[in-house]
Amino acid sequence: MSNTNIFWFRRDLRLDDNAALYHALKAGKPVRCLFVFDREILDELAADDRRIDFIWQSIAELRQELSRIGSDLHVAQGRASDVVPALAQQWQADSVFANRDYEPAARVRDQHVAEQLAQQGRQLQLFKDQVIFETDEILTTTRRPYTVFTPYKNAWLKKLDGFYMQAYPTHQYLQHLDRWSSSPTPSLEELGFKAGLVSLKGGSHAAQQLFADFCQRITHYKIWRDYPATKGVSYLSTHLRFGTISLRKLVQFACLQGGEGADCWLGELIWRDFYQQLIWHFPIAAGQSFKEEYRQLAFENREEWLIAWQEGRTGYPIVDAAMRQLNQSGYMHNRLRMITASFLVKDLLIDWRKGEAYFAAKLLDFDLAANNGGWQWAASTGCDAQPYFRIFNPVTQSAKFDPDGKFIRRYVPELAQFNDKDIHAPWLAKNPPMGFQLGRDYPKPLVDHAEQRQKALMLFGKNKE
What we know:
Layout: E1 4-9, H1 19-26, E2 31-38, H2 39-42, H3 50-68, E3 73-78, H4 80-90, E4 93-99, H5 104-119, E5 123-127, H6 149-159, H7 162-165, H8 188-191, H9 204-215, H10 221-224, H11 237-242, H12 247-257, H13 259-281, H14 303-311, H15 317-329, H16 334-347, H17 352-362, H18 368-379, H19 394-401, H20 406-411, H21 449-464
């Protein structure tokens, strides 16, 4: 006779408005909460990966919240696909409750867990939490997944009503948590990672503070979001990625708020759903171009150019500033993600997957579906992507979105003395600052944009024929 249920935290590190936790608590048996530092994931990461610190902070806050109500969180490390079934058997759990994950590797893991549990006479019960609409909830009239964003967005908005934004009242049922205590959480060092590398604070409390701050600025979002030196975006992407804040709460706020800024931000939240349903229906896109005609592009893939791009030494200030921001903080402004991705693929003629992998290793808010979707959009290889003949000019983008060079000066201080015009293309400066020498104090441009643009057009055009 089983006497408990398990709630397995994954991309949903909060108690508030948590779908699977709500269903676990309502199922009528004491609930034990579990988090697994999955070695299958961790063993592939560098010791200075900031995400583990963020997760660890969020887990620590969860344990504190649970302990205040007399319960606890068991934090394990190992292969999740082995740990979860083993604990279910040890604790004599009837079911394991979790929120659905749409990524290919997560689906394989969950299938394995479900099979192991079934052999024990137990169940894995999965629920929708990190998206508003999942899997087959938004389909075309011919029952096929959307591959163009605007019709998907229209269908999404048409279907949205109060039911889909309604919060799960988990706090009303927390008395159903098991009254127990577990062993201490492994330290970051015990997990094999370094502490103190992340400037963004983990946990739901920090997420709510950021959200409250953004609520004061959302009316300006549509305009301010494009300027990296301006505090224009929500800075909630990492919290959304790890579920320390509820997507339903954000969507509800955007709908109630209304206006140009809130509508624009809601559109960005819909893009998240769009990319999640794409990775669900087309898992092949995780490893290769969505558009078949671009799967055999003959990229030059010059290794020294890739390294220069990674290290912020391309000679194009806006690109270098963006890459240094990523390397120093684990964050990159969304406009800059588009500029740097376009530059790698269309100027340096390097396979988008190499850039995608670098972002995956460095971004604190890394999400496979969004990262893959964004890179394929910039590379013109994805569904509803930027047309291959539209190529960002890094100098004009720089002058438009960092007009006074404030962002560049912050991350490329060796150019701080240039005037607001010359800072975007120091190699064209007629009167550079006294003592400044291009090639010594700052790199000469790796490539000529106009020449590389023609090469990119030829490369993509051949495959289009």
